[in-house]
Design brief:
elongated; two-stranded antiparallel ribbon; 9 strands; 6% helix; mainly beta; five-stranded antiparallel beta sheet; 110 residues; 1 helix
Length: 110
């Protein structure tokens, strides 16, 4: 397999060494999640809603949700300059990308 499924969302990533249908935890650092152009159809791009925002100096932490993730949320750290150019506000729908090589997988029991 070359992808994992989290609720209703399928993400391409390196699954080498994992058993098929294994229970895993997927993790990605907040600074690795990118805000992209609304029409971007690259791998692992999807729409997310800005649930909350936290200003942390040179970057803004976005708390993101989307129907495909169910109750799970993502956190994205976005440079303030990029936030200004995209005019992101709370409750906005934005397009994000999680690069496949930045997703870390941990099999249950590891």
């Amino acid at each position: 397999p070359t992808s994992v499924r989290c609720e209703g969302l399928s993400l391409e990533c390196d699954t080498a060494g994992l058993s098929l249908n294994a229970e895993i935890t997927a993790a990605v650092r907040p600074e690795e999640i990118a805000v992209v152009n609304g029409s971007d159809a690259s791998v692992n791009c999807f729409d997310a809603e800005v649930i909350d925002m936290e200003f942390l100096g040179s970057y803004v932490r976005l708390y993101l949700g989307c129907p495909q993730l169910g109750e799970h949320q993502l956190r994205a750290d976005v440079p303030r300059k990029l936030m200004r150019s995209h005019s992101v506000e709370q409750s906005d729908s934005i397009r994000i990308q999680i690069p496949p090589d930045r997703i870390r997988l941990y099999q249950a029991g590891d």
